[in-house]
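INFO batch 0412 | record 1 of 1 | parsing
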Amino acid sequence: MTYRYQLKLKSSRECVDLREYKKEITSAVRIGLGNKNVKVAVRKEYYQFCYKKEKITRGILVKIGRGITRLCPQLCSFGYLYVPKDRNKRPILQLFRRAKLGGTN
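INFO prediction complete | emitting tokens
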């Protein structure tokens, strides 16, 4: 299955070139999946990877996102900050969202 992600905010997509962070994004995806042989493609507006073993859980996708945030702290200023209604929960920074693939997802 192919997974494609782009920056959450459209204004950020227009001014950030993800190719500048290719090494860090590739590393975060491979660490998150625990597989060094995963093919990762980083383009200007998105990154994508193919994983054929099984469907990837939400927890693993969150782990990949946190890895990218840790390895590329300069991207944090381009994220979307969610503030939960429950005051006991921490705010959540979302950098990426799932992007549609050419007609299928």
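INFO post-check: DSSP finds three helices and six strands in the chain.
INFO record closed
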